[in-house]
Design a protein that fits this description.
The structure holds two protein chains of two kinds. By secondary structure, chain A is an alpha/beta fold. Chain A is built from 14 helices and five strands. The longest helix of chain A has 31 residues, at 172-202. Chain B is of the alpha/beta class. Chain B has two domains: 2-43 and 166-366, no CATH class; 48-150, abc type-2 transporter like fold (3-Layer(aba) Sandwich), CATH 3.40.1710.10. Chain B has helices at 2-20, 23-43, 61-73, 83-91, 105-110, 126-145, 169-199, 203-208, 213-242, 251-277, 280-297, 309-315, 319-333, 339-366; strands at 50-56, 76-80, 97-101, 115-121, 155-161. In chain B, helix 3 links the parallel strand 1 (50-56) and strand 2. The radius of gyration of chain B is 28 Å and the shape is elongated. Classes of the chains: A alpha/beta, B alpha/beta. At the A-B interface, helix 2, strand 4, helix 6, strand 5 and helix 7 of A face helix 2, strand 4, helix 6, strand 5 and helix 7 of B. Strand 5 (158-164) of chain A pairs parallel with strand 4 of chain B.
């Protein structure tokens, strides 16, 4: 058997080059693989961006100063997309599902407020699901207290005084975009490495590789390197969209690049294991795409998992996706999403990378015996 | 006619047997949507109720009242604690915010002075931050309302709900997820069964056989349809047993009809894609992209009514929107509202995919 560093390096490079060429042969698939994460980013962004404010019709029974002040309080409640309509228009809109609430300010609103008399604001809600409906139910009291705080500061004295931990709020898209980057890394890497491995088994070219004098490690590293280099394409596309188009610039550039590459290595190794175990590209494809959405929701894509239920917290910490989201949120926004610190989380990811590469080698070795 | 049915049955039988011989594919189709449902259910208890530490530094009666109001508002997952522990919880991300009732709360309230409640928020994410911003005033309003006629807040809210009852978020998510399962299963099984014929060159056998392209398509679509329909019905039965979504009486039939139409639409689309692309790997990639687009654009992870008009306009052209609507009506409200429209759109869409599939297969066979 030939040995030596140069020989092994040659094997690694040859395997990588071959896999890159094969991946590039199927242009439609490669393009789809590259752009899939961006598609998900665009689609999720559209819905999160739009869904954060409830489209609401306000029927102004009168246009007095207090009624107008109440309308202004509603518009500043971080909850509504308001439009003033007539009662008939409002009913038509809510019945057609174009809006989710109708707030009716009665004709005697100003007079009743001035006379310190009770006044009733009607709120009709399309109570489709509790998450969205409760936002409206809570936003109306917020508008009421904001209204009184401005109109009668000496009457309604109990008001919230907010202190924020961070200088600026982080909007939905900048936060979610980073989580989607992780899913993009996962999908891209699992696809490239998983298919690269599965193809060898499916086409039975693995026999030739295993019967060759090349070491198993070199073959495996070569395949991983090929997948790694092809995956860099989809990483670059998502990073360009995230940083240049959405304006989500990292706070720690070096950490962002380093942690992105570390995350990529983890999923490249995981994909190699998947492809070697399943040996066929169909289940690799279906599992890669299919697991991305559940893992996205499980791993704290929308916020720290410590704010979720204990069951979700335990489950999420099994998967490297969670730690990858934590470290990349740090790199982009300087957020600390758990108590392990950036070093702790990076070490966990490093551990995953080493463990998965070793596991990939073991799986390949066992597959050799089985074959 | 008999010959047509015989060929259709033979192709259907063959495709089902091929599919059943691939347990990894079966698992890969079923497990992700079920995992998604499972995760949604696990996290449901936390949705809209953020963990918050409550520190009451006031020993007077008003402090006790506002604490009671915050408890009763049921807008947080509360941890009543001291200031030091609250800071630790906030630092360790155990809570999103600390709500502190100041030591002079009762006194300032009686003196009619401004009485701020301190709210320290970990504003790393606008979703959680806005929840807190809405929830604290909600609790304050309830505190005032508890004072009855003595309350300085005279504005009351009379809520009228459009629907008879609220639906929990995870319940709401079940139906789009079932629709996604049906689409992925239908498109992939139909697409794979068709593309494989070209990839394995078995399409040559069709070419030299006397089978008509209509019978070939009918067999392939039927196989994809049956696979999706059975999977969808099993998942529906499962969520019924668990109690997440429970169809009542005749509405089981409505639901099954919609499941069947979505399955037919997905299967027809899959056969069309498979015949057009002729390669398994590309078919799967395009199919999953198509299923995800249909899922997202039909309001899969949101609520269409909350979206801007232009997004709602796009959703109106997505057949899955009508399938999800019909299932929502049947399962959540035991209603057949707009069922005719939904069936018509889904039926026409399924027919369109069948025609597209016929065209694609004929073109493929001719080529």
């Amino acid at each position: 058997m030939k040995t030596g560093f140069l020989y092994e390096f040659g094997v690694i490079w040859t395997c990588a080059k071959k896999d890159i060429k094969v991946a590039l042969t199927d242009r439609i698939f490669t393009i789809l693989g590259l752009f899939l994460p961006m598609n998900v980013l665009i689609l999720m962004s559209l819905f999160v961006l739009a869904g954060s404010y409830a489209p609401t019709a306000v029927v102004m029974g009168e246009n007095g100063a207090y009624a107008q002040l109440f309308y202004n309080a509603m518009s500043q409640a971080h909850s509504f997309r308001l439009q003033q309509t007539s009662p008939a228009q409002a009913q038509a809109l809510i019945n057609a599902g174009k809006i989710v609430a109708v707030v009716t300010i009665p004709p005697d609103f100003d007079q009743q407020i001035r006379n310190d008399q009770p006044v009733q604001v009607d709120v009709e809600i399309n109570n489709l699901n509790t998450d969205f409906t409760n936002d409206i139910r809570r936003a109306v009291p917020l508008s009421i207290t904001s209204f009184y705080a401005k109109a009668f500061p000496n009457l309604v004295t109990v008001v919230p005084s907010e202190h924020d931990l961070y200088l600026h709020d982080t909007d939905y898209i900048p936060y979610l975009g980073v989580s989607i980057l992780v899913i993009a890394l996962m999908v891209g890497a699992l696809l490239q490495s998983g298919l690269g491995s599965a193809r060898e088994w499916e086409g039975e070219t693995m026999k030739e590789l295993l019967l060759s004098p090349a070491s198993r490690w070199s073959i495996m590293l070569g395949k991983m390197l090929g997948a790694f280099l092809v995956s860099l394409g989809s990483v670059a596309i998502v990073l360009i969209v995230l940083i240049l188009l959405l304006g989500v610039a990292p706070v720690h550039w070096a950490a962002m690049f380093g942690l992105t590459l570390l995350t990529l290595i983890i999923f490249i190794a995981a994909g190699t294991i998947l492809g070697t175990l399943l040996k066929r590209h169909q289940p690799v494809l279906a599992l890669t795409f299919g697991t991305s959405i559940p893992l996205f929701f499980l791993s704290g894509a929308f916020g720290p998992i410590s704010f979720s239920t204990p069951a979700v917290q335990v489950l999420a910490q099994i998967f490297p996706v969670y730690y990858a989201i934590v470290v990349l949120q740090y790199a982009f926004h300087n957020f600390a999403l758990n108590t392990y610190g950036i070093t702790g989380n990076t070490l966990v990811l490093g551990g995953y990378a080493i463990a998965l590469v070793v596991l990939a080698a073991i799986v390949l070795r066992r597959s050799t015996i089985a074959h | 006619m008999f010959n047509f049915l015989r060929i259709t049955w033979a192709i259907f039988y063959k495709d089902i047997r091929v599919w059943l011989r691939q347990p990894a594919n079966v698992a890969a189709t079923v497990i992700p949507p079920l995992a998604f449902l499972f995760i949604q259910a696990l996290g449901a208890a936390a949705v809209g109720r953020s963990p918050v530490a409550l520190v009451n530094l006031d020993s007077g009666p008003q402090g006790a009242k506002i604490v009671a109001a915050i408890r009763q508002a049921d807008v947080f997952r509360l941890q009543e604690t001291d200031a030091v522990h609250a800071q630790t919880l906030l630092k360790d991300l155990g809570v999103v915010a600390i709500v502190t009732i100041p030591a002079d709360f009762s006194q300032r309230y009686l003196e009619r002075l401004q009485t701020p409640i301190d709210v320290t928020v970990n504003n790393l994410n606008l979703d959680f931050t806005n929840d807190i911003r809405r929830a604290v005033p909600d609790a304050i309003t309830q505190y005032y309302l508890a004072q009855g006629s003595a309350s300085p807040i005279k504005i009351t809210v009379r809520e009228q709900d459009l629907r008879v009852h609220d639906i929990q978020l995870f319940q709401y998510t079940v139906l789009p997820t079932i629709a996604l399962l049906l689409m992925i299963s239908g498109i992939i099984s139909g697409g794979l069964a068709t593309a494989l014929e070209w990839e394995r060159y078995t399409v040559k056998e069709f070419l030299v056989s006397p089978a008509s392209s209509a019978a070939i398509i009918a067999g392939k679509v039927l196989a994809g349809f049956v696979i999706s329909f059975v999977l969808g019905t099993l998942v529906l039965g499962l969520v019924d047993i668990i109690g997440w979504v429970q169809p009542v009486g005749i509405y089981w039939l409505n639901t099954l009809l919609i499941v069947a139409l979505i399955s037919l639409f997905g299967s027809g689309l899959g056969v069309a894609i498979g015949a057009l692309l002729k390669k398994v790997i590309t078919t799967i990639a395009i199919s999953i992209n198509a299923a995800l687009y249909l899922f997202f654009l039909s309001g899969g992870i949101g609520v269409l009514a909350f979206e801007p008009n232009w997004l709602q306009a796009i959703a109106a052209f997505i057949p899955l929107t009508y399938g999800i609507h019909a299932m929502q009506m049947a399962l959540f409200y035991s209603s057949a509202d707009l069922l005719g429209r939904d069936i018509l759109v889904l039926g026409l869409s399924a027919l369109a995919t069948l025609l597209l599939g016929t065209f694609a297969v004929r073109r493929g066979l001719a080529g």
